[in-house]
Amino acid sequence: MARLAVMYSVSLNSHKKQLKLRRDERRMMRYTEKAFSMNENEFKANYRVSKDLFHEIFENIKPFMQSPKRRSDLLPKYKVLVALSFYATGSYQRLVGGSYGTLMSQQSTSRSIREVTAALNHPLIQRKWIKFPQTRRERDAVKLR
Asked: Is residue 145 part of a domain?
C-alpha cells in the first residue's frame, strides 16, 4: 500500500512539473507574440527599431547566442526583445522585465541583456552594424543630423 502511495505521489509531482513547464512555455510565447502583435509605431516606441529591423538583427546575432538547453530556457528571440527594450529605455532592469511584452524577473533580464550584448559585441557583428565616422567631414555630417 505504501508503494502505491509513493508511486502515485511521484506520478502526481511529475505531472505537475510537466504542466508548469508547458504553462511557462506558453507564457513566454504569449509575451513574444504580444510584442509582435503591436502595430509598427507602438513596436518602435518600445524597442526603438522596426519589426523588420528586429528580425534582421535577430537573424544576424542568433548564431552567436546560446541555444536553449532545457525546455524552460528563454527563447533567443525573447532575450533580444528584452535587451532591446532595455537599450531603448535605459531603464532599470526590473522595470524592463515587468513591462508589456517582456515579463520576466530581474535576474533573467540581466542574463538576457548580458548574452545579447555579448552577441552584439562579436567582431563579425560589429563590422557589419557599427561604423564610426573616420574623417572630419563624416563627423561633421553626423553632428548635423
From this structure: no
Residue 23 lies in a domain: yes
Cβ-count burial of 108 within 10 angstroms (0-12 exposed, 13-18 middle, 19+ buried)?
Answer: middle
Closest CA to 107 of 120, 121, 96, 118: 96
Whether the CB-CB separation of 79 and 116 falls below 8 Å is answered with yes
Q: Three cell numbers at 57? A: 538583427
Position 28 confidence tier, pLDDT thresholds 50, 70, 90: low
Return d(Cα 21, Cα 24) in angstroms, integer: 5
Measure the CA–CA gap between 35 and 97, rounded to whole angstroms.
Answer: 13
Does the pTM surpass 0.90? The reply is no
Quote the CA–CA distance of 65 and 111 in Å, as a whole number. 12
